[in-house]
């Protein structure tokens, strides 16, 4: 399980939205924490309208202040400033994590409103795509402040690809350590909620298409029931849910209704979120949900 947490900071209030989750995980997992800043070449004095660190001395003082404010009682907290100026902040984060053996990155997406609509193309997404590390992504509350973080209810959306179940060991460990309830969910579309291109191909036989989707939902329910039985046998508080509708909207709504604290999504290395079902579904989940995301790589990113 995670023993060394890397928390990239840029000095902005938005980035500090990651701190409650980092503190929670460090305490629960008895993990070491490294607060990390990369000195950016030609760094702006502001980012997202907020203060941005521009030099190593300023950055070191800031990280020390964060450590004192947020991580009292955590046995081992380090502050590290990468002083060599770089244009590729995400590459430096990935390289540092690999060099010093970090096994979890906790960071903010810097998204506003519906939280993660700026995730794609951001430093967070580049970190996900460039490494093999799990990444826990949070976002500020509606006032731009660090939100409280807990982990009592975990949601793991799965599709029918067995490959995505490779993320289960990480999810089980988090659920067990946090004594959390684990909700495993699969969404099967109805005929009405099929994407337009799929609906066109099924239009000639809509009744048959609807029946096939009903059978797929039945098979998914039987499969998830088996997964949950195994989890319960291991002492995990787990439940299975097969929902119907448009996947992204249905998952986001389920997360809100169940008051989910953490959603876990499997990723495929350098293809990042695009390999989770389809990029549109993953992006839809992220843009609709305010829930913190734990993105778990489930394959070697060097393998195409």
TrEMBL record:
Entry-linked InterPro entries: Rossmann-like_a/b/a_fold, Universal_stress_UspA, UspA
A matching Pfam family: Usp
Domain of life: Bacteria
The UspA domain, residue ranges: 1-138, 154-297
Entry's family note: Belongs to the universal stress protein A family.
This protein's name: Universal stress protein UspA
Organism encoding this protein: Geomonas paludis
């Amino acid at each position: 399980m995670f023993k060394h947490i890397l928390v990239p900071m840029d000095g902005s209030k938005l980035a500090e939205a990651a701190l409650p989750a980092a503190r929670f995980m460090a305490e629960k997992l008895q993990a070491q924490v490294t607060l990390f800043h990369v000195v950016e070449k030609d760094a702006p004095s502001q980012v997202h309208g907020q203060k941005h660190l521009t030099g190593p001395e300023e950055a070191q003082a800031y990280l020390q202040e964060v450590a004192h404010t947020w991580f009292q009682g955590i046995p081992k907290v380090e502050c590290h400033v990468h002083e060599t100026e770089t244009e590729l902040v995400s590459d430096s984060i990935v390289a540092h994590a690999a060099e010093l053996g970090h096994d979890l990155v906790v960071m903010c997406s810097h998204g506003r409103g519906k939280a993660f609509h700026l995730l794609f193309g951001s430093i967070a997404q580049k970190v996900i795509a460039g490494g093999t590390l799990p990444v826990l992504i949070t976002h500020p509350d509606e006032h731009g402040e660090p939100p409280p973080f807990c982990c009592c209810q975990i949601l793991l959306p799965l599709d029918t690809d067995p490959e995505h179940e490779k993320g289960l060991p990480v999810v089980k460990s988090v659920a067990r350590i946090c004594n959390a309830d684990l909700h495993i969910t699969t969404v099967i579309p109805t005929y009405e909620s099929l994407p337009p291109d799929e609906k066109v191909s099924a239009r000639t036989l809509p009744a048959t298409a609807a029946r096939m989707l009903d059978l797929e939902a039945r098979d998914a329910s039987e499969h998830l029931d088996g997964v949950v039985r195994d989890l319960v046998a291991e002492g995990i508080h787990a439940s299975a849910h097969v929902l119907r509708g448009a996947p992204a909207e249905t998952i986001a709504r389920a997360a809100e209704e169940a008051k989910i604290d953490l959603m876990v999504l499997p990723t495929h290395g350098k293809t990042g979120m695009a390999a989770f079902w389809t990029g549109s579904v993953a992006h839809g989940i992220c843009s609709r949900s305010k829930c913190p995301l734990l993105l778990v790589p489930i394959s070697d990113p060097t393998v195409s």
